[in-house]
Design a protein that fits this description.
Number of helices: 14
Bound molecules: ligand PMT
Strand content: 15-25%
Distance between the termini: 25 Å
Strand order of the largest sheet: 13-12-9-14-17-18-20-21
Structural class: alpha/beta
Number of strands: 22
Mean pLDDT: 95
CATH architecture of the largest domain: 3-Layer(aba) Sandwich
Low-confidence stretches: none
Radius of gyration: 25 Å
Largest sheet: 8 strands, mixed
CATH class of the largest domain: Alpha Beta
């Protein structure tokens, strides 16, 4: 089960045109397995209804009248206590002012005042209102108190202005929510390095030797580590993916660049997860100029790339870090046998054997089918999403780190 499942988040929605985007945020958080209680202010209800939120969260959404309803005067206490995190998105200048001053004149601000949960606010307002000294002072005060302020972003505003004031997009906000929820996870204080994607080896300034790795599996591992509270360094080959909120992204192109960055980061890492598909060979010499077609097909001599895990193993013997190393083995035949061989040869604690011949598994797709192989045996996992594979692998990492304590 996902580590997010069942965690309770209170989403406060205030009166901004961006409140329609809060519906997408509520839906995204619900799909992640979170229990989302929504509280709408009177202003928010001018733009969007409680029913809209109820439809996407499957939970009751609350409005000011509920404060005087069946739950009596304690509704805000109950909601505030149950929340592991309060998110106010969009947060208007008015609500930010109330949160800063401790004004509690509606269900949302009462709940925020009554709760000890961490608070995330995503301001949304017109440019002038955001720049106004009163708003800036309120934001500074909230920040000083440890409130997480995300955005606003620059761009087109409802007034027609091109200015700062747009609410951060729901997908990004959901990333911040995950990072904050991870603060109570078992990997807090631990550094996890993840390599992802394929490397590219230059033939000439235009052409490269590449492979089909999309980076999806590696990025999913990085997200799973963030959900558990880890500090994550994501060393990534070229990919179209956006890295998770909370990951320190290190972009590389070639296998040798990846080696330099992974080896550097691994020296301080508690765990290293090598999901990258590193090119085993590179052109011995990359042509300086574009190779001309009229000159005929070139002969490209190849040289073996350095093995990154081998270099990590040498460093590990000297510095004792990373404490845990996980390799991935992409195999099209003799899955278990080959993975077990690589487990020993590459000095890793766990090898994730990836059957790339299986339908809907391996490169590019959103699902994967793997076998977890270690010195004690193997565990076959069914076909699942790459996010779930990430969670299962990270659960093993947590176990291994625990044993080393
Ligand atoms: O990115 P996706 O599209 O989501 O696809 C995911 C994936 C199939 C790429 C991923 O799940 C996977 O299997 N990654 C490992 C691919 C691979 O290169 O396997 P390998 O058997 O060639 O290498 C074994 C291990 O050695 C790997 O951990 C690899 O990162 C590492 N290696 C390989 C070559 C090299 N020069 N140095 C290394 O350290």
């Amino acid at each position: 089960m996902s580590v997010l499942a069942g965690k309770r988040v209170l989403l406060g929605v205030t009166g901004s045109i961006a409140s329609y985007k809060a519906v997408e945020l509520a839906s995204t958080l619900t799909q992640l397995g979170l229990e989302v209680d929504v509280v709408l202010t009177r202003g928010a209800r001018q733009f969007v209804s409680a029913l809209t939120f109820q439809s996407v969260t499957g939970q009751r959404a609350y409005v000011d009248e509920d404060l005087w309803g069946a739950e009596g005067h304690v509704l805000h206490i109950g909601l505030g206590k149950a929340a592991e995190l309060i998110v106010v998105a969009p947060a208007t200048a008015n609500t930010l002012a109330k949160l800063a001053s401790g004004t509690a004149d509606n269900l949302l601000t009462l709940t925020a005042l009554a709760s000890e949960a961490p608070l995330l606010v995503a301001p949304a307002m017109d440019g002038g209102m955001f720049e106004h000294p009163a708003t800036q002072v309120n934001l500074a005060l909230l920040k000083e108190r440890g409130v997480e302020i995300v955005g606003p972003e620059s761009g087109h505003l409802a007034s027609g202005l091109e200015a700062i004031g747009r609410m951060t997009e729901p997908a990004r906000l959901a990333g911040h929510v995950r990072k904050l929820l991870g603060r109570s996870g078992p990997l807090v204080g631990q550094t996890v390095v993840v390599s992802a994607g394929g490397t590219q080896e230059a033939i000439d300034p235009v052409r490269v030797i590449a492979n089909r790795s999309s980076g999806k599996q590696g990025y999913a591992l990085a997200q799973a580590a963030i959900d558990l509270g880890a500090e994550v360094v994501l060393v990534s080959g070229p990919t179209a993916l956006v890295s998770s909120v909370g990951a320190q992204l290190v972009s590389v192109t070639s296998g040798r660049e990846m080696k330099a960055e992974v080896v550097k980061a691994a020296r301080k890492a508690d765990a290293l997860l090598m999901a990258a598909a590193v090119a085993d060979f590179r052109p011995t010499r990359a042509a300086k100029e574009k190779i001309k077609r009229v000159e005929g097909a070139p002969k490209v001599a190849l040289t073996a790339n350095p093995d990154i895990l081998e270099a990590v193993s040498e460093g590990r013997k000297k510095f004792g870090k990373p404490r845990v190393v996980v390799g991935f083995a992409a195999e099209s035949e003799n899955l278990l046998e080959n993975a077990a061989g690589k487990l020993r040869a590459k000095d890793v604690d766990l090898m994730v054997a990836n059957d790339i011949s299986a339908a809907a598994a391996g490169f590019e797709v959103d699902t994967n089918q793997v076998v977890l192989v270690d010195a004690g045996g193997h565990e076959e996992l069914p076909l699942m999403s790459k996010a779930e594979v990430g969670e299962r692998v990270l659960a093993r990492v947590v176990e291994m780190l625990e044993k080393l304590k």
